[in-house]
Design goal:
By secondary structure, the protein is mainly alpha-helical. Helices cover about 75% and strands about 0% of the residues. The chain has 2 domains: about 80 residues, no CATH class; about 270 residues, no CATH class. About 5% of the residues have low confidence.
Length: about 425
């Protein structure tokens, strides 16, 4: 018999840091591409993480609110080097993209009035509309199987678009419905992609009382989380004043705990408050932020950093405008990602026990179905802002660019960064042609 090669020695902390830094700089392509990159490197090439451990960690991260790729990196870092490894991995996964986006946000804020800058973003906006439409199509194909899922997606869209119900209530209602449906083990929302253990997994009874040491660990992590949340928020309020920083801390913290389904799912909630209720940005500026976030490495939810930057930029006095904007961006990033670290480090020791619970899988499936309607609402909101200009009529040039970009995504699978570059070039050409 041929002996299987023995696993390599565990990496040193310094080796792991170099890997996480490289991953953070190269993590383009959205969560699917980022997870595939971790699979190829951590499991296949370096063999630092066992395949089964990796998949169970991935299944666990799909159950959590927040960016699953960043959470998976945090979990893998925890498996390798404990708490310090998890913090290092999760931080380095986000940091390069955050720094790049901060620079791009400043360039946009300082130069948005320049014709050259404006023309680039005029070409990017219809591409972003196509990207959101593609997300509806992609997630809908996986999540909507049977009339209950379709009905839940339609109900979520109507609740947001017509009834103006807040996004967190929709997530909670969908999760509760899925949980109840999963108690019988034959939920219409329980699919192979939604079930944490896969299509053939069996239901188990899992609760906090059956997990040794869960409650003391929960109390410790919750207390540390509250301290780490309060300190930077308090510092911003003391230095720059209560607004918009207090509203930012509340909004982004709430958003962080309901971001099931990824950034596209929570963006309607943030846009509703940041654009319509609080007036921090215009719909066009929100589209600009999405375009910038699509061009940077790291999770797409970094777009909330852009929102924080502009909220503080527009509220700050001229003499401290940039300092306030940087603080706003930092506060948005901190409040967005801090819950991810807390949730992963809380649940990481118990992943094996949570694996395969049908009620959790059904709740996740129901939430994912509702998310399709939520993202559709975002698409309608953004499409209206770019394709139906205030002066009336339809912007047929933007509509053509959006349709072409959507076809490129669905038919040929063109990478998003290439579409972003093409959109920027088309915007410049459009400005030169006077269209």
């Amino acid at each position: 018999m041929t002996e299987r090669p023995s696993p390599p020695a565990p990496p040193s902390f310094a080796q792991a840091l170099r890997f996480w830094a490289k991953l953070g700089c190269l993590s383009f392509g959205g969560p699917a591409g980022q997870i595939a990159m971790m699979q190829a490197e951590l499991v296949d090439r370096l063999r630092w993480i066992d395949q089964g451990v990796f998949l169970r960690g991935l299944n666990f991260c799909t159950l959590l609110p927040g960016p699953e790729a960043q959470q998976l990196a945090t979990y893998a870092g925890w498996r390798l080097h404990g708490v310090r490894g998890g913090i290092a991995a999760g931080t380095l996964f986000v940091l390069p993209g955050a720094l790049v986006l901060l620079l791009l946000s400043w360039i946009l804020a300082a130069g948005r009035h320049l014709p050259a800058v404006a023309s680039v973003f005029d070409g990017l906006k219809p591409v972003v509309v196509a990207i959101v439409a593609h997300a509806v199509w992609r997630i809908g194909r996986k999540a909507l199987h049977g009339w209950p899922a379709w009905g839940l997606a339609l109900g979520a869209f109507v609740a947001l678009f017509a009834l103006r119900i807040d996004f967190p209530w929709i997530v909670l209602a969908a999760g509760a419905l899925g949980w109840l449906a999963g108690r019988g083990g034959a939920s219409p929302f329980l699919t192979g992609s939604a079930h944490p253990g896969g299509a053939g997994a069996t239901a188990q009874h899992v609760d906090g009382g059956s997990l040794p040491g869960f409650w003391p660990r929960l109390v410790r992590i919750a207390a540390l989380y509250l301290v780490l949340l309060a300190l930077p928020v308090g510092a911003c309020l003391a230095i720059f004043g209560t607004q918009p920083f207090l509203d930012m801390a509340i909004l982004f913290t709430k958003a962080a705990f309901v971001t099931f389904g990824g950034a596209y799912a929570v963006l309607p909630y943030v846009a509703e408050h940041a654009v319509r209720a609080l007036g921090w940005l215009t719909p066009a500026q929100m589209l600009d932020g999405l375009a910038l976030a699509e061009t940077t490495p790291g999770p797409l939810i970094l777009v909330l950093q852009y929102v924080g930057f502009f909220a503080a930029w527009q509220a700050g006095p001229p003499e401290s405008q940039l300092a306030a904007a940087i603080a706003g961006a930092a506060l948005a990033t901190w409040t967005t990602f801090l819950p991810s670290f807390a949730l992963v480090l809380l649940g990481a020791p118990y992943i094996e026990r949570l694996h395969g619970d049908a009620r959790i899988g059904s709740a996740l499936g129901a939430i994912t179905a509702a998310i399709v309607g939520v993202i559709l609402n975002l698409g309608v909101f953004l499409a209206g802002a770019i394709l139906l200009p205030p002066q009336g009529g339809i912007d047929w040039v933007s509509a053509t660019i959006a349709a072409a970009a959507l076809a490129a995504l669905i038919r040929w699978g063109v990478a998003i960064h290439w579409l972003v570059i093409a959109g920027a070039l088309l915007g410049v050409l459009r400005a030169l042609a006077g269209l």
